[in-house]
Amino acid sequence: MENNGSKLWRLNKEEKKEEVKSGKALTIRIALSLLFGNIDSNDERQVVPMGHGDPSPFNCFRTSVAAEDAVVDTLRSATFNGYAPFYGQPPAREAIAEYISKDVPYKVSRDDVYLTLGCKHGIQIALTGLSTPGCNILLPRPTFAMYDAVAAYTGLEVRKYHLIPENGWEIDINSVEALTDNNTVAIVVINPGNPSGSVYTRQHLQKVAETARKLGLLVISDEVYEHITFGNNPFVRMGEFASIVPVLTLGSFSKRWLVPGWRLGWLVTTDPTGFLQKSQFMERVKEFISISPEPPTFIQAAVPEIIEKTEEEFFSKCINVLGQDADIIFEKLKEIPCITCPNKPEGSMFIMVKLNVSMLNDIQDDADFCLKLAKQEKVIILPGSTVGMENWIRITFALEPSILEEGLERMKAFCQRNAKAL
Ligand SMILES: *Cc1c(COP(=O)(O)O)cnc(C)c1O
Ligand SMILES: *[C@@H]1O[C@H](CO)[C@@H](O)[C@H](O)[C@H]1NC(C)=O
Ligand SMILES: *[C@@H]1O[C@H](CO)[C@@H](O)[C@H](O)[C@H]1NC(C)=O
């Protein structure tokens, strides 16, 4: 098992592509199943799941009562048991349009909003719409692996621009310019960042928008962690700069409302010039949506009330816990010599940290580290190679704080036990 895991992680690009095509993609889910499979069944301690961002099992991350009530009401009404229209129910589209309009200097219309089965479905729709023979797309490194997997399926060539760890994981504009050619159709920006935990400043986003304009790129802005910020920078929507460059905004209830299982997301043309709506790309997007499944109708019907009635207190409580978690992880990891954190997370639910395997005995790389940690300590974290950075690690800190501390203690014990004698 251990060797299989490591081998899969070490496949080269071509082999990985084949794995993806044959349905064995090294997605985060597959990596996680390998890690969970490596757990020692005789170890009676609880698993500490720091591998994927789903805080919903923890009491402190229960969704808002208002959101639960809204869904109960629409379900009980027995009026939303049928199919919904292709692009979503009009009141839900209207509510999302208003929700996004609050953060941009123009009015987003109901017709700009397309409801999706979570943000992942939005990614699938956007990349399918962009895929024409010979085209390529710019993705960040480190990445959210879903983009790579979907691009491989749709036949889009992927080029990776760099995020600079020493610079708060800002986008390396030079690498964006160097990678772009006449066949580059779009750049994906994830802000707040997964896996980086970064939150970009207004100035940086404007610079990215100006660069995209100069290079003729559509910007796909993944804002699934919208408003989940607890550092110095407030959340700014890329759509604020849509008069400079057309922006396709992706989002969902999954992370901000802590309900990834509700599968309610959106794809929005934040585009005051109307350029995007008239494009061939949007024709393909609509075509693909018309052959896609719709999000559950009773969840759609609850959208206006979920947005309107969720108390500010719910959001601030959640941000407070995540901010506390970010403090805990940043401080605790400093006690582990083989790990360095370039930045304290300022948003989302993740931190990327660098691993120095030469300080450890008999650990070959990040995948090996994570597999052995799962086996010895029942702690699940994600190897950086699954997000494009070998010998880094992605950790989610969206756990009940006491459980997070427990997980970090076990990581520390693991590193001490496996440390090379000086
Ligand atoms: C979690 C996540 C998604 C997927 O969101 P869903 O709404 O659960 O489909 C998309 N993009 C990023 C960056 C994420 O972290
Ligand atoms: C890219 O397009 C420009 C303008 O259409 C053209 O002059 C140039 O030769 C093209 N470059 C390549 C590498 O095809
Ligand atoms: C890793 O640790 C070794 C041993 O302590 C040290 O010599 C080396 O400089 C470290 N490498 C990095 C990249 O920090």
UniProtKB/TrEMBL annotation:
Family designation: Belongs to the class-I pyridoxal-phosphate-dependent aminotransferase family.
GO molecular function, one term: pyridoxal phosphate binding
NCBIfam families: tyr_nico_aTase (TIGR01265)
Keywords from the named record: Aminotransferase, Pyridoxal phosphate, Transferase
Descriptive protein name: Tyrosine aminotransferase
Record-listed N6-(pyridoxal phosphate)lysine modification sites: K255
Entry-linked CDD domains: AAT_like
Pfam entry (one): Aminotran_1_2
Domain annotation Aminotransferase class I/classII large: ranges: 47-410
GO BP annotation list: L-tyrosine catabolic process
InterPro entries: Aminotransferase_I/II_large, NHTrfase_class1_PyrdxlP-BS, PyrdxlP-dep_Trfase, PyrdxlP-dep_Trfase_major, PyrdxlP-dep_Trfase_small, TyrNic_aminoTrfase
